[in-house]
Amino acid sequence: MVNSGGDVAVGVQIHHSSVRLPDFLQSVNLKYVKLGYHYLISNLLTLFLVPFIIITLIQFSQTNPQDINYLWLHLKYNLVFVIIFFAALVFAVTMVVMTRPRPVYLLDYSCYKPPDHLKAPADQFMRHSRLTGDFDESSLKFQRKILERSGLGEDTYVPEAMHSIPPVPSMAAAREEAENVMYGALDNLFRNTGVKAKDIGILVVNCSLFNPTPSLSAMIVNKYKFRGNVRSFNLGGMGCSAGVIAVDLAKDMLLVHRNTYAVVVSTENITQNWYFGNKKAMLIPNCLFRVGGSAVLLSNKSVDRRRAKYKLVHVVRTHCGADDKAFRCVYQEQDDAGKTGVSLSKDLMAIAGGALKTNITTLGPLVLPISEQLLFFATLLVKKSFNPRVKPYIPDFKLAFDHFCIHAGGRAVIDELEKNLQLLPVHVEASRMALHRFGNTSSSSIWYELAYTEAKGRMRKGHRVWQIAFGSGFKCNSAVWQALRNVKVSSNGPWEDCIDNYPVKVVS
Questions:
Q1: Burial annotation 434-445 (CB, 10 A radius, 16+ → b, else e)
Q2: Which of 234, 269, 300, 319 is catalytic?
Q3: pTM, rounded to two decimals
Q4: How confident is the model over 262-283, as pLDDT tens digits?
């Protein structure tokens, strides 16, 4: 987005030759020209149908009883044809109704809010990092610099084990973190919806780095005493975009199994995945990742449409793992000292940009108005056939979506998407504020952002939401939701006690 401003001084002289006509090209507000074009193209079919409807009505008004009688006699003597025609019509309508995908509804969701004693302000974070004795001065300076530029505020959370000096990254502490996050989100979800654990037919849990035995999904089944035939899945190692993958898996299962509920739990575990070395590429996750998780309740029951918040419209997944650079750009490994961590490549942003391009190329035709698709196709045709130097047309996704939930992976990710998709500050506000308040909560971050939009009272009936997330592999995944009503914030939401303090200005 480019902001321009300035004063224009106009001098008026008596001499006729000095009088100039205004620059009409600059005077015309191209924004309104573009809006008019979109309106014309979007309503083109209607504009063609109106004359046809008028002519039909005029013709029908001139019909007399004799014409109607003649039509009746014609149909009576062709009774077999009429019966076959209507039988074929009924069969076709039945097939369409039976084979169309069943809608998937989002009844509600819940985001975990950790207790206040787990908050980790920047000064406390750095003091603890120094006291562990694992980081040299260069690494400490690097962490301080990352924190200052990250976009994180002073109220993010780290797990209990990281508050101890020295830290205690044990298996028991990691289980405790997972239990607190998952059970906290699920307790609130079941309380708000009134749905019983016995009613859940499908359970999908995703956590990238912590995969104990029994699995996280088994821990939930045991805790809430799910029924024995529940279809449970545990997704591991799939990165920050796994939340959308989990929703896609739940959707596919709901298309197969009738009249059931699905729960999707998305989280990440920090306790056993804190890096205690001095390789800078592996220190960045320490500074960005924070405690968080979400639980989402989905349904394919037609009766649930009345109380559902959203309907799932599209899921588009892009996997760039066939490319070696993309595969290794977010990579868990050991450093030279044998300490395990997640290394982030310097090519990460470029790879994310390529994955995004591929993803929106698939998503665009599904969501963009025909006017934008024509402009994109025309520009592509000119570029390929006539002038390779023509800049590709960037579709205006603001015409397709009312709200954007961009994975709060870091400030640079949000900045790049704001720039490349030509979004306004209000469109990335939810992402920036979620990053500021909760940090990078991995696959659950898009739900904290949606909760922010609801808490601000901005979600109206018919609004479309684009959730977009990036993750190791490398993957870029999108989910599109449509609001079925004016959405009100649910009880005990993550923003309940602080929404009036936002938005805040993030220091550059």
A1: bbbbbbbbbbbb
A2: 319
A3: 0.83
A4: 999 999 999 999 999 999 999 9
